[in-house]
Sequence to fold (422 residues):
Amino acid sequence: MKHRSPALIGAMLLSAGLVACSSSGSGSTDATGGRTPLDVWLMRDSVSADFQKEFETGFEKDHPEIDVRIQIQEWDGIGEKVTAALASNDAPDVIEVGNTQVAQYAQSGGLTDFTAKVAELGGDTWLKGLAEPGAYEGKQYGIPYYAANRVVIYRTDLFEKAGIDAGAIKTREQWIAATEKLDKGDTQGIYLPGQNWYALAGFIWDEGGDLATESGGEWKGGLDSPEALRAMEFYRRLQALGKGPKDSDEAQPPQAEVMAKGSVAQIIATPGGANVVVQSNPELKGKLGFFPIPGKTATTPGAVFTGGSDLVVPAVAAHQDEAFTFLKELAGDAWQKKLALAMSYVPNKTSLAGAVASDPGAAAMAVGAANGHATPNTPQWAAVEAKNPVKDYMTAVLTGGDPRTEATEASRTITETLNSDS
Fold:
């Protein structure tokens, strides 16, 4: 998924952007320098220009027989471009895709299966929220690249004034108590719009439920389960401790801009939202902190939706061996540590969480990422998000609707959508 905005992720290939690959198979070389050209698509802003240069230089020093050709792609319309590339005879060798997009590409048979390589790639400590959606029907197609997830961004000065130690907030009930204390006078304890369904999903996972479940090839919406209903009740309690609109999401209006106005003590966002707050109101520089979304108990952080990317190799890619070498390097420990520090990402393995200890926002993300989840792993989930009955359900409950009745209706819509092509 594209984690830079809540709205996660024509049919023509980029005529100037796709460099022709040799069709003579793995190990072939180009006609000019005797090196194998390796065409790679990475997404806009997934790496900085400095990191890209450092990686290319380091990779080619260690693998002088490979000529890496990284091309930066735009998120807008990337689904159509990747689909076209997978169906062509001239696809790039490696492609970065949103972690929740892997299933739809794998369904077509267009991706290389790396199941036998998982152990070699260190898959035993991969982040679940990247690894699980990177698999389809029991086979691993997507290799975890990097992750990002939501944390609590808070006003350190308002917490201090209220006598609250953010570091001591470990459970959801402690979070509620602190937020009630903050929600006084002109200060909103938290700005939580009514349709932040990613936050609700985390609470559902905390309770042991899910947005939808699959059995015997059939999917069933899960918003009407006892676990999901408990999660919605917690969301309602938290949302009431501020003035967030009940009928819109975190992008309408942009919640970071709302926080920048000075009366909001907390928002739920990726750490990059803090930069937006400070850009909008420089007076808040040095007054923002981060902590992981609290869980039901102090021993486990709150569940979060893991956004981020996986790396895939088209089945028709000309240079399969070289593509695997690229994956092994960029997804390996050494470059993952450098990428995390350079971009404030969560590394792809739980064993590498310490790499971002010096970055407060990324460190808070890494704690939550250990309890990361993904949306239901089916190509049809994109159709659910397009309709988004979860948002409608949340607004209905927050404006007085009966939770069970509204959840039953929303779950019915999810069930019908997920099974529409089954």
User: Anything to note?
Assistant: The chain is about 35% helix and 15% strand.
